[in-house]
Amino acid sequence: MGRAPCCDKASVKKGPWSPEEDTKLKEYIEKHGTGGNWIALPQKAGLKRCGKSCRLRWLNYLRPNIKHGDFSDEEDRIICSLYVNIGSRWSIIAAQLPGRTDNDIKNYWNTKLKKKLMGLLPLSHHRKQPSFPSSTLQNPPLSPSSQQLYGEYCTYIPVTTSSFTGMEHLSLPSASYASTTPSVSQPFYQNHDSMASVSPMQCQYPIRDSMLMFGSEGSCSSSDGSCTQGREMKQEEFGYHSYNHNLLLSYNNNNINDAVKSCGGGCFSQTLAPLDYDLEDIKQLISSSSSSFNINVDENKTEEKAMYYY
DNA sequence: AATTGCGGCAACCGCAATATT
DNA sequence: TAATATTGCGGTTGCCGCAAT
Length: 310
Fold this sequence. Notes:
Elements: H1 19-32, H2 41-45, H3 51-62, H4 73-86, H5 90-95, H6 102-118, H7 144-150, H8 182-190, H9 207-212, H10 235-238, H11 256-262, H12 279-287, H13 303-306
The chain binds a DNA duplex through helix 3 and helix 6.
């Protein structure tokens, strides 16, 4: 026998909330609190809604001090940094951003921030290439210095050294998130000819190659269309931290938009779908600069939420 | 002007964790 | 201790508005 539903689905209203419903819910909670029981609340408040729906509406929209609208660059950085360290644990990330909800952050990440970041990825990293020959790909403009530095491999993104300030070092939620040791990470670049002569600490190596090895499927990035079968790598195996190379992105500098601009606004071609990456790629991208992203994460931090949980 | 496609966002769903009986 | 109820969370869906055609 399955679990009983939390409410009678047939008799509850679904879909967008009306202003009247919002008013009812808000007034009720402001007057009585939730009573510690969301399931019973809608009936008491005179709402034909599921308790879960009420809770969600209150937390994501009606509760005081909710911030809507554009995310600041600082918020961008915090989200990115936390994402690369703890993954899609939106509630924890939201706890670091007063006034933001996990749903908001999740939506923001999925619709905007991820794309912004993908704009930082080199063209060659795109997993699904168009069917036309690679020679027709529109590579983004490279500065002369960047071409010197990385040649054909990737778009150079200006190196900076600034970082978050005033933040304590990240405390990771579990051992599985611990930094990867060189012994684990080294083979990933050492096995590449193009990397052979470059020290990992110098890290003037193509992003492409460092990226190639992640994900569970082979990447087809060779100009001749041949595929390189990357080693299959589990998140637990690698951890959320990539090895600490110094390929700093200007994203690291203060403004993610600057980084996009520095790519000539076109790190991904118009002809390519910008979202054909797996999450590890994105994490890898971020973590390539995350060594200087130091944010204190206390998983147990719930003060902000507690303010609204009567 | 009409249609289509896409992006953004609010809300829903299902599962896991936790609390209560 | 087991069963049940409730909460919390993350993934996903579907609607709406806008831009492109």
